[in-house]
Amino acid sequence: MKLFDAIIFSFLILTCLGNFALAEEEKSKATPSIAILYFENNNEDDKELQRLSKGLCSMMIEHFQDTSDMKVIERVRIQSILSELEMTRGPQFDQATVAKIGKLVGAEYLVFGSYFEIFKKFTISARIVKVETGVIVAAAGVSGKADSFDTLQKNLSNELLTKISGVKKVNSKHLAGKEGQAEPVASKVSVSNVAKYGDALDLFDKGEKPGARKILMDIVEANPDFSVAKTMLETMASKSN
After folding, report:
1. Which of 10, 119, 154, 172 is least enclosed, having the fewest CB within 10 Å?
2. Confidence class of residue 27 from pLDDT cuts 50, 70 and 90?
3. Is residue 116 exposed (0-12), middle (13-18) or buried (19+ Cβ within 10 Å)?
């Protein structure tokens, strides 16, 4: 009888483990993965604005991570792949390029877009493309004052997440506004601070971490609410100890 009980117990354990593994596999399949690429500077006469590209990407990644249950690819992974492909910006990708980048970073969706500034008004537009088909599944655009860059990128991210949740089930948090629209976000992070943050990311990518740390310290001192810069500085400090 004891042997029979042991066999039954073992069978139940194996069944539970099998069910757990299947549940985790189904959960993984049900959670879409997304990669946010570097945006393109459409102000060809203002090369300084190119400094915003990495900063904008990093800020959107943080916001997507904080406000949805999507699997968001880390920026360092994206940087590695784009360097391997000798790409630095997000041009008009054809389907073959989209499929290649998506496969390399392990993403089901890609986000890319562009930005420009005219008459002291900043505009950012973005598209979400399904890697498998190359089809644009969501598009959004925002415009506003350059001294509220964080407000612009958060509202853009919220609008994209609201739209993609209608294409595929995405558990988006803190996004629902009136009539299903994304709630506007108010915060103060200027374009100049994002440009400096982009410089820090560029130095970090080149392995020049002391220079990156110095810029981040200056940014956080001037703007303590710039969360993504603060998080990066804290991460670098913890890894150096």
Report:
1. 119
2. very low
3. middle
Q: Round to whole Å and give the CA distance between 238 and 241.
A: 5
CATH number of the domain to which 139 belongs: 3.40.50.10070
Cα–Cα distance between 168 and 160 in angstroms, integer? 12
Q: Is 81 left (phi over 0), alpha (psi -120 to 50) or beta?
A: alpha
The answer to whether 71 and 31 are in contact (CB under 8 A) is yes
Residue 133 lies in a domain: yes
Q: Is the dihedral of CA 185, 89, 53, 103 positive or negative?
A: positive
Report residue 165: phi and psi, to 5°.
Answer: -65, -20
Structure tokens at 205: 């990518």
Q: Is residue 69 assigned to a domain?
A: yes
Task: Please tell me the total number of residues recorded for the chain in this structure.
Answer: 241
Query: In this predicted model, what pLDDT tens digit does every residue of 168-223 receive, in sequence order?
Result: 555 555 454 434 444 445 557 788 889 999 999 999 999 999 999 999 999 999 88
Q: Which residues of 194-222 are buried (b: 16+ CB within 10 A; e: fewer)?
A: bbbbbbbbbbbeeeeeeebbebbeebbee
Q: Is the pTM of this model over 0.70?
A: yes
Give me the number of domains the chain comprises.
1
